[in-house]
Amino acid sequence: MRHLRLPLVTALSVLFATVLAALPWGLPAELRQVPPLLPFLVLHYWTMRDARLMPEILVFAAGIALDIATGGPAGYWSLIYLAGYALTLGASMTVLASDALSRWLLLGVTLLALSLVEIALATIYFATAANWSTPLVAALVATMIYPLVAAPLRVFAGPRTAATARDPSWGRAT
Amino acid sequence: MLAILVVVSAGLMALDRLNHPVVRDIRWRVSDWLTPVLAAAVEPLQPVRWALRKFADLSAMRAELDRLRADSRKLAAAEAQAADLERRLAELSALARVVPDHALPFVSARVVATSSGVFVRSLSIDAGRDHAVRSGYPVVSGSGLVGRIVDAAPASARVLLLTDLTSRVPVIVGKAAVRAIMSGDNSRQPRLEFVASDARIADGDEIVTSGVGGVYPRGLHVGRLVLGARVPRVTLHAALDDLDFVSVLMHATPLGDLDNDTAPAANGAGVAPRALAGKGGHSGPERAP
Fold it and tell me: Choosing among A67, A80, A87, A121, which should be mutated to test the B contact, i.e. which has the most B CBs within 10 A?
């Protein structure tokens, strides 16, 4: 049972973040893009910790659930989460991801890249130039609040072990 | 696997853009399943929303106080004028034998989710086809028009907000009743388009729906005109970022329901007098049974 605990915590935390992201928080328009990045922050944490905990299908499911719950185009957030997941996987295999501060900076760069993907997708979808400032602000805010999201996850996950730290399969998709 | 899922996501987006019935059907089913979960999750969120609202209120209080003082001075002068106009209108209505407006049935629903894309401005409510909610029905809050229903599942529906890029609302502006189209562009203040260059409009003019096209009934309060930018814009009365409850007005459009459904008034749906609908409709916390 113990070997199932962490995958279960991973799935539940992503589900919880997805529900939180869909709720009407009453945030001002400039910050409305922040909640949808919550599930990504969670999946980023788990992917950076051990990519085997985060199967692609879970990333896809979180995005689709958010799309449907919020009435957005089906496939929009799943595409963005998958793009972010791929970037995170790539980043996790670099030497830059060796300490917490570096991982935080890599997250900032990843979120910045994702906001560009969001703008590009929106522009293609509606064939009109999409608002660029809101996704960029959201990326910045999400980067800043990441430690608040990561702290409780770290408590649930427990300390890193040799098996979950940088082993040869770390950062490799299952 | 990753590449396959990316292709599936892109395919779903393309099908959704084409409004494919299969995607719509899946969306309805999943949405109905998710709505009770979201409705339950909204409850514990209320204290957080309350705190956020209080914080925003406090920061805006000074400006609000100045505005209220100015409004109070204007209202004192307008009160006497309104009483006189009311008396004259009653006399003229009696002379012209005007038929009073019909009451509009409505159903109130809770907002359970808000949109999160860079371009979609919509929200989900926990009332759907089972509550006689149909595509095309206007949605109001206690302050003014919010948008219209674009998708109705059995137990939930999606509301396209006035600020959405695809939203177009025929309106009339000010005392001169200048006709225009209010177009959402995903900003907080929709644009006002097709206004004649010599139109007699002024900053702060009240904007209401014109009823042209039949989707929205005439006279729903929308917002106030803001001049000064490159294009005239509208400050909406309804606080679209902070909606708890909304009311769906069962206004059958003469264009026909978009889902080819008949649109009878719901069993148990409330009835809003047109005058109330004009003020933004019912927004109390109670639900129609």
Answer: A67
Of A20, A69, A73, the CB nearest to B117: A73
ipTM > 0.90 (yes/no): no
* Separation in Å, CA A144 to CA A34, A37, A107, B5, B284: 11, 12, 10, 29, 37
Q: Tell me how far CA of residue B235 lies from CA of A151, B152, B218, B262, B289, in angstroms.
A: 40, 28, 19, 34, 34
Strand partners for B140: B145, B247
Q: Report the gap between the CA of A148 and the closest CA in chain B (Å).
A: 16
Q: Give the Cα separation of A62 and A64 in Å (integer).
A: 6
| pLDDT of B256 over the 60 cut | no
Going by the DSSP 8-state scheme, the letter that residue A21 receives in this structure is H
Confidence band for B273, pLDDT divided at 50, 70 and 90: very low
CA dihedral A55, A57, A60, A62 (to 10 degrees): -70
Which of B9, B30, B163 is the closest to A60 by Cβ?
Answer: B9
Interface check A18 vs B, CB under 8 A: no
Kindly provide the b/e burial profile for residues A90-109, where b requires at least 16 CB atoms within 10 angstroms of the residue's own CB: ebbeeeebeeeeebeebbbe
* CA B223 to the chain's CA centroid: 11
Distance (Å, whole) CA A131 – CA A125: 13
